[in-house]
Amino acid sequence: MPDTIHAVSFSPAGKTKKVVSHFANLLGEALALPVKEDSFTLPAERERVRSYGEDDLVVFGVPTYAGRIPNKALPFVQELFRAECTKTVAIVTFGNRSFDNALAELVYELKNNGFHVIGAAAVVCAHSFAQIGTGRPDANDRKLLAELAKSVADTLKDDTLKKGHTAEAPSLHVPGGEPPWEYYQPHGIDGEKTVFLKAKPVVDPALCDRCGICAAACPMGSIPSDAPDTTTGICIKCQACVKLCPHAARSFDDAAYLSHKAMLEQTFSRPAVTQIFSLQTSA
Predict the structure, then answer these.
(1) Domain tally for the chain?
(2) Does 143 share its domain with 277?
(3) Full-prediction pTM beyond 0.85?
(4) Domain identity same for 155 and 32
(5) Average pLDDT of the segment spanning 155-174
(6) Which residues touch 267 (CB under 8 Å, ≥6 apart)?
(7) What is the model's pLDDT at position 157?
(8) Which of 191, 193, 246, 197 lies closest to 217, judged by CA?
C-alpha cells in the first residue's frame, strides 16, 4: 500500500489542478493517506526531475488542447517524471467538446515513464475561452470521481497490486487508440478549417497598470516581468493572463480565433459526459 499521494498537474487556468486536487483528496480520505500538491505549470516548477517509487501514489492531470496533451507541455510530461511501478491515476480535463486522444496519450506517456496506471478519468470543465461547459465539473461529475476513487482504493487493497506483483495486474483500457495521434483541427463559424497558432493577446494600454500578475501566471514565461504589457514568446491560448488580469486589460482579437470560438459555442453547447475507467471495469 502506498504511503503518500502526489497530486501532480499542469494547469495554466487552474481548472485541472482543482480536479486533480479534489480527486487526490478523495483518495486520501479513502486510504487515510496524506496528499502532497505538485504543479509543473510554471517555468520555475519545471527545473527538476521528479522520481517516484512503489511507496508513492500519483494522481497526474493535464488539460486537453486540440484533442491531445498540450503540445508545448508534452515534453514536460516525457522528461520531468520517472517512476518504478508507481501506481497512478491519469486525469485529463476537456472543455465540453471532446477529450479525443488526450487520455490515451497521457496513459501511454505515463507507462513509458514507468508508472502503473490503475485508474483514469476524462472530466468535463468549462472551456478555456468559449462559453461552453459553464459550471462543470458539476455534482454528477463529482459523483463519478467519487466512484472512481472508491474503485481505485479497492484496487489498491487487492493482493495483485502489492509490491512486486504489479506485472500480474490487468492492463487499463481507455479510448483513443495507439500512436501516432492527430490533433483536432479547429474550424471557423463558416465550417472551414482555421489556424490561429500565432494569435496572442492584445493589451489595452489605458487599462494595463503593469502590475505583473499576467507575467507571473504565464506557463510559457512569455510575458516579460519588466514589460507585462507585451507577449514576446509562445502563447498556448490558456487564458491565464486574460482571466487573472484585475483590470481586463488583455483580450484576443484574432479573427480566426474568434471564429473558432463562435463555432464551438454554436456546435458544442450540449453537455458532454465525464468518463471514468478503472482496472475493475477493464478486467
Answers:
(1) 2
(2) yes
(3) yes
(4) yes
(5) 67
(6) none
(7) 82
(8) 246
